[in-house]
Design brief:
The protein is built from eight helices and twelve strands. By secondary structure, the protein is an alpha+beta fold. The chain has a five-stranded antiparallel sheet, with helices on both faces. It is globular and about 60 Å long.
């Protein structure tokens, strides 16, 4: 085979190789096209989205109360289990005493001696003390909250304000501010109406629920005294005092941690309660603006609904 033939063979071989490469490239492009088409026409299946819905009955769904405002606040989690006008600012009456005692325990020790001043013996009833009698803060607070004593609350407020070198009004405002109680302020330490149009203290059901919980934490022995039908203490002069609880339903509430009543013409019937729904699971129930008797039935209704809520049933 001469050189011309060799050149012709090489040229033919090169042309065939180039044609083969072109064919292979075209096939690859065509395969890629079909791959893309198939995956466009059949997109990957999307996972199903399941929306969780609660099947537990609402134990508070049909609650009816006489109060103008109420709340059931889970103090362990911060969850509001029930609310009705819970942020409305209303007269507090003797629930103001909770703020007074909280302020005192924030400033004074439980053993601080408190002398009953003359001014305290002139406030409206209920009263129990004489001017000059001396109690420890803890004993005076137990008697005062259990029987809602206006002379005791006045003495505690004056002593705490004096320690702060402040007025009672400013002292109580400071205590409310420290707890971030935005709707709460007090004109006096007892909560007695100042006039026919001005209450001694104002606040919301939500604020009072948080305040009651804070007092249980700060002064548990004082709070515990309010859960009994009566409590007693001895003054420095040896005189023994036994007072009855203003809350007649304390013995009907399981694991009660605190009870405080309040009633004036402006406020109507108020009640603040803290109880354990379980181990270290405190719940606060507050009713404001009810009647003198209905505050207790309102609260009992809310407590029953709370236990039903945790049991996962509509009612007990």
């Amino acid at each position: 085979m001469d050189s011309a033939d060799l050149r012709q063979l090489a040229e033919t071989t090169r042309s065939r190789r180039e044609a083969g490469i072109a064919l292979l490239l075209s096939s690859s492009i065509l395969a890629l096209f079909f791959f893309i088409q198939i995956h466009q026409e059949k997109p990957a299946a999307q996972p199903a989205i399941t929306v969780a819905t609660s099947t537990a009955p609402d134990a508070f769904a049909h609650i009816q109360i006489d109060g103008k405002a109420a709340i059931v606040l889970d103090l362990a989690t911060g969850e509001t289990l029930y609310a009705y006008n819970a942020d409305a600012q209303l007269p507090l009456a003797s629930l103001t005493k909770l703020l007074t005692v909280y302020a005192a325990f924030s400033e004074l020790s439980p053993t601080t001696p408190i002398t009953i001043p003359v001014d305290a013996t002139h406030v409206d009833a209920p009263r129990a003390f004489s001017a000059g009698q001396v109690f420890t803060l803890s004993d005076l607070a137990r008697l005062t909250l259990t029987a809602s004593l206006n002379d005791g609350a006045t003495a505690i407020a004056l002593a705490t304000a004096a320690r702060e070198n402040n007025s009672p009004h400013a002292m109580l405002a400071g205590a409310a501010s420290a707890l971030n109680l935005a709707q709460t302020y007090a004109v006096n330490g007892s909560g007695l109406d100042v006039s026919t149009s001005v209450s001694g203290g104002y606040g919301s059901a939500r604020d009072l629920a948080r305040l009651a919980g804070a007092l249980v934490y700060k002064a548990p022995l004082v709070a515990a005294a309010t859960t009994n039908a009566s409590t007693e203490a001895v003054a420095a002069d040896g005189k023994r005092f036994i007072v009855k609880n203003t809350d007649p339903i304390v013995n009907t509430i399981p694991r009660l941690l605190l009870s405080k009543t309040g009633y004036t013409d402006l406020a109507g019937g108020n009640l603040a309660l803290v109880f354990d729904a379980g181990i270290e699971h405190p719940i606060a129930v507050v009713v404001l603006g009810s009647s003198k008797n209905a505050r207790f039935t309102d609260s009992s209704t809310l407590i029953a609904a709370t236990f039903a809520h945790f049991a996962g049933v509509a009612s007990l």
